[in-house]
Amino acid sequence: MIAPMRMTTTFDEMWGRGTGQSQDAAVPNGSPDGPPEGPPEAPPEGSVNGTPHGADSVLPGIQAARSGRMTQAQVMYQGLRPPYAAFDDWLTGENPARLLRKQHEAEEVFRLTGITFNVYGRAEAAERLIPFDIIPRILSAREWARLARGIEQRVRAINAFLHDIYHRQEIVRAGRLPAEMIARNAAFLPQMIGVEPPGGVYTHIVGIDLVRTGEDEFFVLEDNARTPSGVSYMLENRETMLQMFPELFARNRVRPVSNYPLNLRRSLAACAPRATKGDPVVAVLTPGLYNSAYYEHSFLADKMGVELVEGHDLRVMDGRVAMRTTQGYKPIDVLYRRVDDDFLDPLNFNADSGLGVPGLFDIYRAGGITIANAPGTGIADDKAIYSYMPDIVRFYTGEAPILQNVPTWRCNDPSALSYVLDNLHDLVVKEVHGSGGYGMLVGPTSNKKEIAAFRDKLLANPANYIAQPTLALSTVPIFTRAGLAPRHVDLRPYVLVSPDGVTITPGGLTRVALKKGSLVVNSSQGGGTKDTWVLEE
Amino acid sequence: MTDHLRLRVRHVTTYDYDAPVPWGLQQVRLRPCSHRWQRVLSWSLTVEGGRREAAFEDQHRNAVDLVSLDPGTTRLAIAVEGEVEVADTAGIVGPQSGFGPLWLFQRPTPRTTAGPACARLVESIAREPSPLHRLHDLSAAISDAVRYETGVTHVGWTAEDAVAAGHGVCQDQAHAFIACARAMGIPARYVSGYLLMEQEAQDAAHAWAEAWVPDLGWVGFDAANRISPDHRYVRVATGLDYGEAAPVSGARTGTGAERLTVAVEVRAQ
Amino acid sequence: MLGKTANGLYWMFRYLERSENTARLMAAGQRIALTRSHADDEWASVLETTATLGPYRARHGEVTRDNAIHWMLCDRDNASSVLAVVESARNNARLVRTALTREVWESVNESWMILRNLLSQRVGERELPAVLTVIRNRSAHVRGAFAGTMLRNDIYNFARLGTFIERADNTARLLDVKSYVLLPSAHAVGSSLDNVQWETILRSVSAEGAYRMTYGQDVRARNIAQFLILDRRMPRSLAFSVGKLVDNFGFLADAYGTLPPSGKKAAALQTGFASASVDGLLDSGLHEFVQGFLRDIADLGAQAEVDYRFYD
């Protein structure tokens, strides 16, 4: 994920709103500060010097480690935000050397447990750790309650949208979504037309990527309605924190996340197809040992107490999809698949797929198995559809959206285009179908010549572009050898949908851009993770 | 009544395998559905050397049977037989059934992507204001441009291949019609089915195309016979191209070769 | 349980067993080689016992100590090198991660991390004993976690099948390669083997002490053969391994309701051992007996793969 906006001032989640211009003014997708910097390294010399406002009251416990180079300098803090009070109290009494040791211990635990992601195309050292930062990210009960309401609303709308799109397309008939947004979209799966998924659920598991910009100010960056990953990190991060700092959990009443696997299994079982006899049999479908998220697949199967299967363990038998066991073939009722649509079934989709199960989709259509998430859900998290999400929420729920979308100007609209052209220096302009930050203009950090050149491209093909404003992304502290340093974060809460309702695990995965000033939190690009706390009332 | 016909169909598809087949699946689209102009009076499907695993309706509302091969079989025979009453509507099928949006039928598929040869054909059609006339012109132009040739099937051929070669079977003519209609901005689809002909015994099922005409809905065009389908035609399955409407398609393991035999009989009652 | 999982467990434990046995063979080999004028002959014998002498010669030609050590420990071209089998064991463990306790998985994973590091470069003769000790200790560590934390269900049984098929195979190979040592003297009633020869054999199965406990200082070929083939108390003997196979097939039969052909084969092997005498085996030819046993064990393994649907 790349935050689509540029940060102007930083909102520090631990210390409150800064009033000065942050030195971190950053470019999405690449830092002007030079080489990447991870937790073990000190902030580079170029970072801000000087004494922070009220320095002595700021983290006195790690004063020594900080050696006067806190990067929070020049930012005027309003003071400690309440959710962090008890944590700060604890931190004050901590010895930085002990914390550093703990940080290394945590990495050792992760390595030993094998919590790794695979890097393709490298025989040696193909498994990497995702850096873990020991400073938790803390949300108050009040903040969370509002977020949870907004997430539930959005997820319900996404499911209603998916049903509509694969049936009558009322939203298109009503003129609220142009037909070409679907027609020209590769994520629309015609084979799903007319399918009624068991339990009426399309997206059993959803991850909503959020960024925080101020008190009670969250924006949705992206919806993940296909096969959102990372939940194992949410669970293992908490496990690690509990092991390393049990005393912290005595001081803070943190809502547990550990029942996620149980909820996941329940939620999946509640969507069992009509062919099910007795207790629904659930299995996790993985592309295999060399998939980048294999660890998570085996972790979830293990914690749910279900089989972890690959395509070649399965075949169509007696009208069901059955897995090969030591005692013969046994039917599966619900398949939590971590294989992309295209590779699910070589008979119905990509014929070259060796990962899938021939006939799986036929059995699905015949009501013999539940596939979670349903095929074709990608149409709901597509970048082009994203800009319509507020309309989608209104259309299906009849309510105003609780969570904000990042405002998006679609340049195919002449009035939007004229606004964008007038404000290029303030906006981020992106290609509709682009990804990875290519072909984009970041107005505030571009010079006149670059803006002029981009203006020509934009005018040549306005429909190909959208524009978004720059926002002030919040930061949270990470622990470095030189003390605490602010870094940008996002948050991915995990949402389970079943006919019985929507379940949101309090918290989620906080991904942190370890590179100073960076907004890129992807693990493949030097991102790390943190434990995320939601406090009890 | 002269504008109704009761047609009796028998269609046997047989695969003979040189070596026992360990595993195989076939998607079978061989069950016609009743609709406004076509009533299925009786229909049966029997499988030898395999079994029916599941039955479902696909995105085009075709009735599909999934058939698995008996492990180790050397022969798979799928036979359908039944009676259908068909009305003559001069090719008009009518409104879209199911949820498939019309734009779906405007998207080219790999088999129906218009290349230069198809583009020239489209270019040659007079700019008639009536889409129906244009489509009839197109159908006639295709029967001229793609000479019907029995016995020579090129399984992998696209619409463009057939138009460029100047000959093909009914499948190629249907693909050519679909590719050109879509290139003209008209939604079009592939139809597989049966046709009552002079000779009762035929060596293949038939195929033609349908295009969307405002106010009329789907209208059939059989370029192979230079007409719009009448009460001699039984519609079985539709799709964006042959791949989605094929009577039998599937996958199997095993290395031996296979021989396909098709026997079709269509009689008027 | 998935057939694939049974397969993964079976091979994970075959590989772990192999790593340990190779380490033991090498330790004995090094010790013996020091006392020989033709030291490299002893390394050739060790290579033969690990069933990799052919591939070794194809790659390196002449058997030399350093090449042999490298080949058996670190060479990725040798699928049975300790590094390769530990990696295979760990990959199988990842495959069956959901069937293992966290402790077993972490133990295997840690073993892999340690040994990958230790075996990343050539191991010199001086470091060899210490490295071999680490290999054996890591195997013991995994076994300890396994014995101490795993539920005694079918998961456990498939792991045990892997362990004892591999062990029976390895001990039988050792007997075969060393049969030339045992045979000439076997019939010479009352003659003892020279210290060096018997030590090789007993050290290779970590059984010098156990042998002394059983037979005192009376080292005879007949006794060694009896001990390694028929003694059901000796944990690396053929009879012990076959007994464990029969037990585990039996537990599986209890759980699954039927005893498949592979289980019956194991039972037949055990019946054969019960009525066998060491003198009879030596009379009819140790080499022939061992060859027959290796075939039987291989058949049994192949049959189990079919019976329990390891593969499609």
From TrEMBL, chain B:
Stored InterPro entries: Bac_transglu_N, Papain-like_cys_pep_sf, Transglutaminase-like
Gene3D superfamilies on file: 3.10.620.30
Pfam families per record: Bact_transglu_N, Transglut_core
Occurrences of domain Transglutaminase-like (ranges): 162-225
The protein's name in its UniProt record: Transglutaminase domain-containing protein
Organism whose genome encodes this protein: Rubellimicrobium aerolatum
Lineage: Bacteria, Pseudomonadati, Pseudomonadota, Alphaproteobacteria, Rhodobacterales
TrEMBL record, chain C:
Annotated ranges, domain DUF403: 1-308
Species of origin: Rubellimicrobium aerolatum
InterPro entries xrefs: ATP-dep_Glu-Cys_Ligase-2, DUF403
Name of protein: Alpha-E domain-containing protein
Cited Pfam families: Alpha-E
Source taxon at top rank: Bacteria
